[in-house]
Amino acid sequence: MSRAPRVLAAVSLGVTASLAVTAAPAGATTATFTPGAPGAGDPYFPDMGNGGYDVAHYDIGLKYDPGTKGIQAVTKIRARATQNLSRFNLDFLGPLKISSLRVDGHGASYTRTGAQELVITPRTGLRKDRTFTVTVAYSGVPQTIDDATLGTSGWVPTPDGAVMLNQPFGAATVYPVNDHPTDKATYTFTLTAPQGLTTLANGDLRGKRTLRGWTTTRWDVRNPMASELAMLAIGRYDVRAGRTESGIPNLTATDQAMAIKPDDAKKFHDQTGEVTDFQSSVYGRYPFTSTGGIVVKAGVGYALETQGRPVYDLGRRPGAIPRAGLLAHELGHQWFGDAVSPAKWADIWLNEGFATYSEWLWAEHADGTPVQQSFDEVYATPAGDGLWKGQVADPGRDHIFDGLVYDRGAMAVHVLRKTIGDAAFHRLLKEWPAAYRYGNASTADFVRFAERLSHKDLDDWAKAWLYSEGKPSL
After folding, report:
1. Which of 72, 91, 203, 265 could cross-link to 221 by cystine, CB 3.0-4.6 Å?
2. What pLDDT digit, counting tens, does each position of 271-297 carry?
3. Are the C-beta atoms of residues 92 and 50 closer than 8 Å to each other?
């Protein structure tokens, strides 16, 4: 069984400003050590992510205190240096106070600078390809991000707990992280809250115990996950566990504050399984160890494709459960966006276009509404409408959640289908997520892949539907 997290003893702070460090052990060649980059190179979010290392695993121990609405946490990171590192950065945002920071068990100097940079200088340089660990103990009330154009993310308080929703940049409000989709990692969550509250996370439940009025659960995420897809939920939930008809483990939960009737909670659970199995038949093997979903009352006004277990906020509608089309959208993301994640945030149409197309495929399967009809209804939007402004493959930082990414993205998918034919298209739906599973891909990668698979020149399609502004002619 897992132990509740404890906060490590504090260490003194210090800052090392060296730009290059050399180390020459006896009999070894002198090596030059330089700082890792303070960003991942994404033009939409230059502060997100970091360079110089690759994270393999996050082990997050977090204890929630309803009295203070705060947390005590210890995050241990296992990573591999991709260069000779004199120092490196993690993303860590907001008022959480660090009490201890160690690299490979030894105290390390650190400082917090800029928008979200935690700059760490270990006692000695880290050689390229060396595996190292970073252990950070911290506490406080995490920050909620309210972005004027991209909405609410990060740690979102609820009346009886909180939800963590990270797209695009909320993870750093809760734990130190290399916060960009290109550095995926496996996860372990050990969550502690007062007895009577439920703690949920991505992955599979591996243990639960109650001791002295506190309940601890342990969750393992064995498939690589982008930080923007990590989730936590703490509160009073009704939980259902089972399997889909094809045998995929299925765990769903409904916030008791939503007053969802047991029959409706069962419907939500069963439909989650039905959609997962249908999409597995269309997109290929389900990419994760379990499926599911969580209905929350958090006031964020959106659903999010958190890996393996999407989160659905349905606003102020007591008793509501997600409609089947919304399930199809968020579960479709498990292949398009989660298993295969964008190389840069400009490529987000590869997530949202295919997720919206997943709604159209489900409507055809479940209700008999032809996909062509769904396309025609959206394409009928007048040419002057905002839907036709901007480029699908480069919408701009403030427009990654706009209609051009979702609806025009789905229309681009359908026109591609008409261009290459049904046989090649259905091969594409399975072979694309299989080829890039647990990795990242760009728009250019997708166009090249579709061309190779279909043996067709897709320059005209890509120019009209991905790289141009305005309403393309048919």
Report:
1. 203
2. 999 999 999 999 999 999 999 999 999
3. no
User: What gap in Å lies between CA 77 and CA 63, rounded to an integer?
Assistant: 18
Give me the mean pLDDT over the 89-114 stretch.
97
pTM of the complete model: 0.93
* Cβ–Cβ < 8 Å for 142, 152: no
Average pLDDT over residues 39-48: 97
Beta strands 185-194 and 53-65 are: parallel
What is the token pair recorded at 14?
A: 């210090």
For the cut 60, the answer to whether the pLDDT of residue 112 exceeds it is: yes
321 with 260: CB under 8 angstroms? yes
Helices 349-367, 262-283: crossing angle, 10 deg rounding: 110
pLDDT confidence bin for 29, thresholds 50/70/90: low
Instruction: Give the pLDDT confidence of 307-323 residue by residue, as tens digits.
Output: 999 999 998 778 899 99
Is residue 359 packed enough to be buried (19+ CB in 10 Å), middle (13-18) or exposed (0-12)? Answer: buried
The predicted-structure confidence for 366-389, as pLDDT tens digits, reads as follows 999 999 999 999 999 999 899 999
Please report, as a single letter, which amino acid is at residue 117: E
